[in-house]
């Protein structure tokens, strides 16, 4: 959703059920520089499964987060914020070639065939996806995104109560892709796996667009809870142990084996779900109207859960695909920031993608 077309300094604000992240970048001659950031925890119950249950409390958290950023003070009220992936619907559809004004009208009638909600209950946005090659096409590939109006209005209300001006608001998958995919183009399909504190987003990107997303109900916090239960320690201690643990050393020592045994059911569930969606994508990839053909051979991991040492190697071995941590944005950081910020950088992937958004672009809710 785009509210204004003015070129203003912006910052990215990423929200999930248990935390809020802020990133502000400064445009430089060559790329960007990290100017401000923050991570603030959200008490359980304020947001549940992407739905804001307590707007007043959440607005206060936003205000506090903006006032307590690390680095330079935020000198702007203009924000690009995230919408919960689990409450949004994304689909690539095929449309006949037509003029832009005609497409704006036609897309709303066609979208009703794909969206599981009434068209009157959602904000709908769309974007024509340019082909990778300059082949003469007989149709348009159009990415549509729909989110319930109640969800969008609630997020916008909280941002405004916090004194902010939302320039744009978008689903997490778009922001993740912007942060991870170099130049926002890929000549073969790749998976972006956002392993977060409350869930995991499975995203397929190909060409110039996200083309498939789903939410996997496996989270890094589940790993922490499993360690806490097995070792009979509190959550904070379990989190510290998890951050120090290395999956590549899971067979070394009785305690290491015990920790791995605690995490195994969760890790196995995640890989099982990933395999299911990989197979689903590949089975449908031959249907060019919906999924671009091509074999997925690479996975980029991000999100706070990807800080688990050895996770990329673990996934590579279990899935038979090359998995790696996506972190090209390290170029944004000074030496000091790399030292202070590196341990949390993967947690900020979505916020970085939001901060990189060009608010004058074509992606709008109507």
Your description of this structure?
By secondary structure, the protein is an alpha+beta fold. Helices cover 34% and strands 28% of the residues. The chain is built from ten helices and 17 strands. The chain has a six-stranded mixed β-sheet with strand order 6-3-2-1-7-11. The longest helix has 31 residues, at 254-284. The chain starts with 10 loop residues before the first strand and ends with a strand.
Fill in the keyword field for this structure.
366 residues, alpha+beta, Nucleotidyltransferase, domain 5, 6-stranded mixed beta sheet, 10 helices, 17 strands, disordered C terminus
Secondary structure blueprint with pairings:
Layout lengths: L10 E5 L3 E9 L4 E10 L5 E2 L2 E2 L2 H13 L2 E2 L6 E6 L5 E7 L4 H12 L10 E7 L11 E9 H13 L3 E7 H9 L5 E10 L4 E8 L1 E8 L3 H12 L3 H10 L9 H31 L13 E5 L8 H9 L2 E4 L9 H7 L7 H7 L8 E2 L1
Parallel strand pairs: 1-7, 7-11, 12-15, 15-16
Antiparallel strand pairs: 1-2, 2-3, 3-6, 4-5, 8-10, 9-10, 9-17, 12-13, 13-14
Straight-line distance between termini: 7 Å
Q: Report the order of strands and helices.
A: EEEEEHEEEHEEHEHEEEHHHEHEHHE
Q: Nearest-angstrom radius of gyration?
A: 21 Å
Average per-residue pLDDT, rounded, comes to 86
Sheet of most strands: 6 strands, mixed
Give the CATH level 1 class: Alpha Beta
Q: How many helices?
A: 10
- Given helix and strand content, the structural type is alpha+beta
Shape, per Cα inertia axes? globular
Q: Under the CATH scheme, which architecture would be assigned?
A: 2-Layer Sandwich
Number of domains: 1
């Amino acid at each position: 959703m785009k509210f204004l077309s003015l070129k203003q300094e912006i910052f990215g604000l990423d929200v999930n059920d248990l935390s809020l992240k802020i990133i502000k970048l400064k445009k430089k001659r060559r790329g960007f520089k990290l100017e401000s950031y923050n991570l603030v925890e959200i008490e359980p119950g304020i947001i549940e499964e992407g739905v804001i249950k307590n707007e007043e409390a959440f607005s206060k958290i936003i205000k506090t987060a903006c006032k307590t950023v690390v680095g330079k003070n935020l000198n702007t009220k203009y924000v690009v914020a995230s919408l919960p992936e689990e409450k949004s619907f994304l689909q690539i559809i095929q449309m006949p070639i037509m003029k832009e004004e005609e497409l704006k009208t036609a897309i709303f009638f066609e979208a009703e065939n794909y969206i599981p909600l009434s068209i009157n209950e959602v904000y709908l946005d769309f974007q024509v996806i340019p082909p990778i090659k300059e082949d003469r096409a007989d149709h348009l590939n159009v990415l549509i995104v729909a989110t319930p109006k109640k969800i969008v209005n609630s997020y916008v209300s909280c941002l405004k109560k916090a004194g902010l001006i939302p320039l744009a608001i978008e689903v997490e998958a778009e922001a993740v892709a912007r942060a991870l995919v170099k130049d926002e183009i890929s000549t073969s399909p790749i998976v972006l796996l956002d392993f977060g504190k409350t869930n995991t987003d499975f995203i397929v990107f190909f060409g110039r667009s996200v083309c498939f997303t789903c939410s996997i109900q496996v989270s890094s916090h589940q790993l922490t809870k499993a360690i806490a239960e097995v070792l009979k320690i509190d959550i904070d201690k379990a989190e510290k142990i998890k951050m120090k643990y290395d999956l590549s050393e899971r067979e070394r020592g009785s305690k290491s084996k015990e920790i791995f045994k605690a995490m195994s059911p969760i890790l196995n569930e995640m890989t099982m779900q990933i395999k299911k969606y990989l197979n689903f994508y590949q089975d449908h990839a031959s249907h060019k109207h919906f999924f671009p053909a091509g074999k997925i051979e690479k996975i980029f991991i991000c999100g706070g859960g990807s800080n688990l040492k050895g996770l990329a190697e673990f996934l590579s071995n279990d899935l038979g695909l090359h998995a790696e941590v996506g972190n090209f944005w390290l170029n944004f950081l000074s030496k000091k920031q790399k030292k202070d910020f590196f341990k949390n950088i993967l947690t900020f992937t979505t916020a970085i993608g939001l901060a990189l958004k060009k608010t004058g672009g074509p992606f709008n809710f109507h």
